[in-house]
Each structure stands twice: as C-alpha cells, then as structure tokens.
Amino acid sequence: MAPGRSINILLPSSLPFQRPRPSIHSSSPSLRPFCRPLFLQSSCRTIPSGPSLSTHTSASRRVFRRWNNIQVALRRSQSTVVVHHKGRARFRRSISFLTISTLSFVVGTYLALSYSPPILVPLIMGSMPSDAETLSIYEPPDDLSREIDEQIRNCALAVELREHPDFIESRPHLKIPPEVRQHNLTAGTLAGPGMIVVPPYYFNEKDGKSMVQIFYVGPDCSGHPGIVHGGFLATMLDEGLARCAFPAMPNKVGVTANLQINYLKPTMAGQFLVLRATTTKTEGRKAWAEGWIESLEVPEGEEPQKLVEASALFIEPKYANVLKSLYRVSD
C-alpha cells in the first residue's frame, strides 16, 4: 500500500477499547470540559496507514487516560466523608497517658526498692546515725588502733572541748553507711592501718563558728620518706574547712569554690595532728573559712606551731535542698 493512503475499517461497538461517553450534562462543572465523545457518530472510522498510524494511536491513549482520571475523580467525589470527634479522641489519649504513667511509676518504684544496690538504700531510707551515736559505733580492729583511739579521746584538748557547752562532739565519717564509706576518700580509701588509723574526732562550735579536728596520720600517707604528702594535707584541710563552714550556710551543705594552701613546715608522719578552722564570713549562699594544721603533742612550755594553713570559699549550690535531704542534714 502506498504511503499516505488510507483504508476504511468497520469498527463494531463491542470492541474492548471503546468507552461509553460521559454525559455533557454532568452535575460537576469541573468535569464538563473533559466530557468529549471518543469516536464519531458513524460506525466506520478511517484509520490512517503509514506514518500517521502511531500518532493517532498515542492520541487515543491520551484520551483513554483522561477518561480514566475522570472516573477516579467521580468515585472520589461520591466517597463518604468521615467526621472525627476531636473531643473524644483527646479524652481517650488523656486516659491512655494517665494509665501508662501510673503503671510505669508503680512498676519503677517497686523495682527501685526491691532491686536497688545496697549503696543507695541507706541514703534513700535515711538510716544515718546521729552525732551522739557515732561516738559509740567504732570498734578498734587491733591493739594499735585501740591505743590510738583512746589517746585521742582522753587527750587534754578533747577533754576540754567535750566539757565546753558550745561544742558538739562527733565522728562524721561513721555517719556514712559502710556500703558507701568504702568509696569515700577520707572515710574509706585513706582510712586504715598506716594511714588515717582511726576515724577523726570533730568538735564543732554551734552555728558553724569554729571547728577542731583531732586525728592520727600513719607512715603510709608520706610523699618523701617520713614526711606527710602535701596532697593529703590539702585534702584534710579542704574537708575540715568545709565541715566548719557548712553549718553556717542556709542549707548546711555546699561545694568548694576556691582553696588556697601555704605549706609552712614539713609535717612528719606517725603523729597526732590537730586541724583548727574558723568561719570568717558568710554572705547568702557563700561562706569563707580559714584554718591550719598543727601537732597535738608539743614539748612542755612550747606553743603548737602551724605546719600548713589554708583558706577556702564554699558556695551552696542551687540544688542544696536536695543534698540536704540526701545527707539527712539537721538544722
């Protein structure tokens, strides 16, 4: 067949690609421009041959796709609209949240109290002894410890402070539960034979005005042979000044903000030492203290000499009320 010529083919109405024509009187105004007949009124249609056949076929496919889109739009326009009740949904969510929160709290509390490590239980339950009870808790493990403990308890300075009505005697290291004490630096790590042999004795003046601490330091706390390590002395001063200043603070607890130390003389190991501290100033959440360490035993007729002195600034943190309840600090 020569190019450019055409033939007539009779197309019956039952062909699968023929589609019913939508009504031009459709109720949807947006669909009227797309309602066009696909074929002419005649049952015969001229199908071109040659190069024009592919062009005609692609045009028919575009028309079919458009008609399919119209049918989808019609089905969507007739779909049912679901109305959501926001009030009921919000109420159900609230009930679910409260139920899950309550259940989680109950289960968490049960697990915390049942399976928490023994380190946390004494702090949570508040089973710390009082100042008076700490004086009878310690039991010396050997003869040397017993001798050192008796010598501190019966020395002239301890007897004098014990009789003073403004001073309260205690051994605060023994307030820490044994499970926690082993992780504490001065009460656990540095405590024992050859170091801080027995828990120190503290004498605190009311309202945090002053404090006196008596303790014994063994040879295992040395830096140079026979000389107490400077870091150990700094640690004892830091803790001693803090225990002096804390009672003068609003919530009786704080942290070290600044510590200055002056080493005056070598401190020999294997002797009894006295730490004296005084609260010099308080201002809101801040407290300043200063003090020094001296020897307990001095030759008759001589005054004790300062071995090391220090001054410190302590600040009460914003969460001090939580720490106060944690450490069971009494007003």
UniProtKB/TrEMBL annotation:
Residues 226-286 form the Thioesterase domain. The chain crosses the membrane at residues 95-113. Coiled coil: none annotated. InterPro entries: HotDog_dom_sf (IPR029069), PTE-AB_protein (IPR052061), Thioestr_dom (IPR006683). Keywords: Membrane, Transmembrane, Transmembrane helix. It holds the Pfam family 4HBT. It comes from the Eukaryota. PANTHER family: THIOESTERASE FAMILY PROTEIN (AFU_ORTHOLOGUE AFUA_1G10800), UPF0644 PROTEIN PB2B4.06. This is Thioesterase domain-containing protein. It comes from Exophiala oligosperma.
